[in-house]
Specification:
single chain; about 150 residues; alpha/beta; 3-stranded parallel beta sheet; 4 helices; 3 strands; about 30% helix; globular
């Protein structure tokens, strides 16, 4: 990792393991069934309640979420994440940005993957997903054709 870069990754609360790094909340609500102490709440990454309630298709959601991130800006996001890491002495240990959405379920998407893309585009730094990766939808096999009767 280059100086000045943050060591970031993303995952779900459900799939997170201590060996992955330092857990950081990025959700509007706290995870009731997550029993590890979180290092902090990255509020600059948390989708607004209005965005969560809008029930948007993924492309519209992503546009609004990226707009939210652009209004905050890279400098404020970086400062918040650095402060969380510094407060617990994370050093080079990854900050694992957590939320609820399991990406391996067909049709699921999440703000953490949109944040990762946004961060990479603006800083050049990759943010790996440590949970299950999105499934690639394969077309259903064509139904077998019945053999016509000869007699």
């Amino acid at each position: 990792m280059l100086p000045g870069q943050l060591n970031l990754a993303t995952c779900t609360y459900q799939e997170y393991r201590l060996t992955m790094g330092v857990p950081v909340r990025t959700t509007a609500g706290a995870a009731r069934s997550f029993f590890e102490p979180v290092a902090g709440h990255a509020r600059t990454l948390t989708p607004s309640w209005g965005l969560l309630a809008a029930d948007l298709a993924e492309d519209a959601y992503e546009l609004r979420y990226r707009d939210q991130l652009d209004k905050v800006g890279v400098a404020k996001v970086r400062a918040e994440l650095e402060a969380i890491g510094d407060a617990i002495g994370a050093g080079d240990t990854p900050l694992v940005l957590l939320c609820f959405d399991v990406l391996s379920k067909p049709g699921n998407f999440c703000h953490r993957q949109h944040f990762a893309s946004w961060w990479t585009e603006r800083t050049g730094q990759q943010v790996p997903e440590l949970g299950a990766k999105p499934r690639i939808r394969r077309p259903a096999p064509a139904p077998a054709l019945a053999q016509p009767a000869l007699f």
